[in-house]
Design brief:
- The complex is a heterodimer.
- By secondary structure, chain A is α/β, with parallel strands linked by helices.
- In chain A, about 40% of the residues lie in helices and about 15% in strands.
- Chain A has two domains: about 160 residues, Rossmann fold (3-Layer(aba) Sandwich), CATH 3.40.50; about 150 residues, Aspartate/ornithine carbamoyltransferase (Rossmann fold), CATH 3.40.50.1370.
- The two termini of chain A are about 30 Å apart.
- By secondary structure, chain B is of the alpha/beta class.
- Chain B folds into two domains: about 100 residues, Roll (Urease, subunit C, domain 1), CATH 2.30.40; about 300 residues, Metal-dependent hydrolases (TIM Barrel), CATH 3.20.20.
- Chain B has twelve helices and 18 strands.
- In chain B, strands 1, 2, 3, 4, 5, 16, 17 and 18 form an eight-stranded mixed sheet that branches. An eight-stranded parallel sheet of chain B has the order 6-7-8-9-10-13-14-15.
- Classes of the chains: A alpha/beta, B alpha/beta.
Chain lengths: ~325, ~425
């Protein structure tokens, strides 16, 4: 779907809205580029000049600390000027429409918007409304997609497992409301994982979920059999108070990742979590802090992956702009 | 006014297309079909290659007045209807203020008189302010000209309200037009299924409609009111209506043209022009709706015309206003369904002539000497590109913009008057 929206005519990334429609080669390029940026974070001077003179606007219509700050750090390491806008408390609460907010920001000569929005499809809408030359990076939209989170997870998996071939991955928790899970599933299937399982009660699954390319399990123990990678999802507290689940206790008993449950997976299985963690609700502390956990690697990789997609999309935009001026 | 139409084909009473040399319209009547001697007429229309059908009746049109001037007006939208071969429309009570009183209805009646194009039959609100709670003044609304009562796109707060509305409507022998909605399930902006899961849009399950369909049918049968189910969108509702009709219930049903043409696949890239309510559903649902029309379970096709200003569609998908500007592309829709081998042209026309007449408990007009001259003359093969300029509706929110479509209305005649004539 977003293939035509997010790629240039020559197949380069110009926006990063969704994993859907991106090729294995392109996803691998993102991972390789990110890998090269990890080294930047280890230098004394942690900067490269790729985005010097460019203005990146963090446009967060929904509260976020971690994602926003890793995007900010990533942009700064690329030498961009960064503007942070917390829109949920400014313009839109005064009744300004999203289109008008965008027009105003464009007038400030921004080059890239990092967008988080509670509405699925909002970054697509923005990408289609902005003037050509402005790149849009999706930092999470509604229940739809969180592609940079998925890619940092892929980087973490590749670092630990070397390859996606033959991997069996289990995603556990609230799939229905999870933009992270949707993007992870698409990325894993595109990169060639041999099986993606989801493990959850029916109240946390979206309709016709198998169409995403997953096998569904309702039991944690059987679902973890033969698994190489375990991805836990965060469960939001308000969903556990009787509406979709009867209680935190029952959820933890059935789906909480304990050491005992993890023993069903392969002995070298890794455990991931996009954070923030609810200890004792979806994951036992002993597992979260245990030897199989790679949760903190994910955070480090987040900056590198965001540097990668920002620099790639900016280069796609520049290329397209040059093509336009040459054409004219 | 007198008009002669020459050398076309007309749809006769038995539903066959018959060649004619000359049809004469004098005053407001079809005076002669192929008369032995011709009388001079003021207007002459060459109908070579054209088809003449009784004009269309559309049971579900938003005329946007009073209250939504940015979207359209009675003047603009009735002229758009005339350009589509439609000479009777029922206008929804979803105005601002809601058409729930004699005062609002009279205001609408005056605007209709001033527009002076086609016949407009207002639908009164079933509940005060369309809030789904308190009865509106049905007797007053009937006196003011409302032909039936409608709940618009608002569900009843509870079944006891629905029951009281039905009983009270029955008292005044008025029909109730209802889009079935179970409020606790009717939340979202897409059909609940593969596409809602992929896009992360909140899905509306078919149960939100079909459960309400079952409940409303039972309530209507108990009270004896004529229930017209509007904008059915899923196969389960069609099955329920079929069963009730087989058992002799006093029920009719319609489907919006968008649900016949499109499925939820159209929203995979968040194109808000396809944001409709009820949502565009699966291919199985679409085919069940078409089958329902073919076997008479569904009586009528409506445009469910919802004009919107451009800004109403410029937002993230779920925050855009639902509905399409559809009324001007009914004949092209008929031609498309015909080309797809899904619905015969005559079945489409029947669902916009005889079908709505049955719903409104009127006699259907047919092309017979002595009948009212309410006619739609169209070129089934003319292709043209849709643009904002070709559309008379104030609402340009059509997904057909920029597309080449086939089938064009050439002239529309209402009560012997030429209310629309194409310029090319």
């Amino acid at each position: 779907m977003s293939q035509s929206t997010q790629l240039t005519d020559t197949g380069q990334l110009k926006h990063f809205l969704s994993i859907d429609g991106l090729s294995k080669a392109l996803l691998t390029e993102i991972l390789d580029t990110a890998e090269s940026f990890i080294e930047v974070g280890e230098r004394k001077i942690r900067k490269v000049p790729l985005l010097r003179g460019k203005t990146v606007v963090n446009l967060f219509f929904e509260a976020s600390t971690r994602t926003r700050s890793t995007f900010e750090l990533a942009a700064k390491r690329l030498s961009a000027d960064v503007l942070n806008l917390n829109i949920s408390t400014s313009a839109t609460s005064k009744g300004e429409s999203l289109s008008d907010t965008l027009l105003n920001l464009e007038a400030m000569a921004s080059d890239m918007f990092i967008v988080r929005h509670s509405q699925s499809g909002a970054p697509h809408f923005i990408a289609e409304s902005v003037t050509p030359g402005v790149g849009i990076i999706n930092a999470g939209d509604g229940w739809h997609a969180h592609p940079t989170q998925a890619m940092l997870d892929m980087l973490t998996i590749r670092q630990n497992k070397g390859t996606f071939d033959g991997l069996r991955v289990a995603i556990i928790g609230d799939i229905m409301h999870s933009r992270v899970a949707r993007s992870q599933i698409q990325a894993l299937n595109t990169l060639g994982a041999s099986e993606v399982r989801i493990i959850a009660p029916s109240t946390l699954l979206p309709p016709e979920v198998e169409s995403l390319g997953v096998n569904v399990y309702h039991q944690l123990h059987s679902g973890l059999n033969d698994i190489d990678v375990v991805i836990m999802l965060r469960l939001q507290r308000e969903r556990m108070q009787g509406a979709l689940l009867p209680s935190e206790q029952e959820y933890f008993q059935q789906y909480g990742l304990t050491q005992e449950a993890l023993a069903n997976a392969k002995p070298d299985a890794i455990v991931m979590h996009p954070g923030p963690i609810n200890r004792g609700v979806e994951i036992e502390s002993a597992v979260a802090d245990g030897t199989q956990s790679v949760i903190l690697d994910q955070v480090t990789n987040g900056i590198a992956v965001r540097m990668a997609v920002m620099s790639m999309a900016m280069s796609g935009q520049t290329q397209e702009r040059n093509a336009l001026t040459q054409g004219a | 006014m007198s008009i002669e139409i020459l050398n076309g084909h007309f749809l006769n009473e038995s539903g066959a297309w018959k060649a004619f040399k000359r049809i004469e319209i004098h005053n407001d009547l079809i005076a002669h079909i192929d008369p032995s001697s011709a009388k001079t007429c003021q207007h002459s229309i060459d109908a070579t290659g054209l088809y003449l059908s009784p004009s269309l009746t559309d049971l579900n049109v938003a005329l946007c007045e009073p209250g939504y001037a940015a979207k359209g007006s009675i003047y603009t939208e009735t002229h758009a209807a005339a350009a589509a071969g439609v000479t009777t429309v029922c206008c929804t009570p979803e105005t601002d203020p809601v058409n729930d009183s004699e005062a609002v209805c009279s205001f609408i009646e005056r605007a209709i008189q001033q527009a002076g194009t086609i016949e407009v039959l207002p639908l009164g609100a079933l509940t005060q302010g369309l809030e789904g709670e308190r009865l509106a003044e049905y007797a007053e609304l009937k006196k003011a000209g409302c032909v039936a009562l409608s709940s618009g796109m608002t569900p009843f707060k509870n079944l006891s309200t629905a029951k009281r509305c039905f009983d009270y409507a029955k008292t005044f022998d008025m029909s109730v037009f209802i889009h079935p909605m179970e409020p606790s399930l009717y939340e979202g902006s897409a059909h609940s299924g593969r596409i809602s899961t992929k896009t992360g849009l909140k899905g509306i399950s078919h149960l939100a409609e079909s459960i309400a369909t079952a409940q409303l049918i039972m309530l209507a049968r108990e009270s004896g009111v004529h229930l017209h189910l509007a904008q059915l969108s899923c196969k389960e509702s069609v099955a329920l209506v079929k069963r009730a009709k087989d058992e002799g219930a006093n029920i009719t049903a319609d489907v919006a043209v968008a649900n016949l043409l499109y499925t939820h696949e159209k929203i995979v890239s968040y194109n808000s022009l396809y944001h409709c309510l009820p949502p565009l559903r699966s291919e199985t649902d679409r085919l069940a709706l078409i089958e329902g029309l073919r076997n008479g379970v569904i009586d009528a096709i409506t445009s469910a015309h919802r004009p919107h200003e451009a800004a109403a569609k410029k937002a993230p998908f779920a925050q855009t206003a639902p509905g399409m500007s559809t009324i001007e592309h009914l004949i092209p829709a008929a031609r498309q369904l015909q080309a797809q081998g899904e619905l015969a042209l005559n079945d489409f026309l029947k669902a916009m002539t005889q079908g709505p007449a049955k719903v409104l408990n009127r006699k259907a007009t047919s092309i017979v000497e002595g009948n009212a001259a309410n006619l739609c003359l169209f070129n089934p093969d003319q292709t043209y590109k849709v643009s904002a300029h070709t559309m008379l509706s104030e609402g340009k929110n059509s997904p057909l913009l920029g597309q080449e479509i086939k089938g064009k209305v050439v002239s529309t005649i209402y009560k012997g008057r030429l209310v629309y004539q194409t310029r090319d």
